[in-house]
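Render Ribonuclease P protein component in 3D.
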Amino acid sequence: MKTIKSKAEFERVFSSGKRASHRLVRVTALKGDEGDLGRVAFVAPKRLGNAVYRNRCKRVLREAARSCGLPVPGYDVILFATRQTHESSPSQVGDALSALLVRSGVRDE
């Protein structure tokens, strides 16, 4: 799974991307070039808790992204953990993520 790493790439997606929120996960997505392979970023801010807590949130997000078929070719997607991400199962987060991908225009219904 190819990930977004540089600060400039993050800022590009933040400034121009479309946002969608759910209590379990937040998504920011930006359509890129057609030939471009899709990329994904997993974010768990420090305000959520210590490193162990944040890493668990990112593991749940990664598994949910895998189950939803991310990365989608031609799209850069950033997934943000919330406080409820930690207590949720990857399948619950995956269901929420699927709905958010449709809402943000990454996927058709």
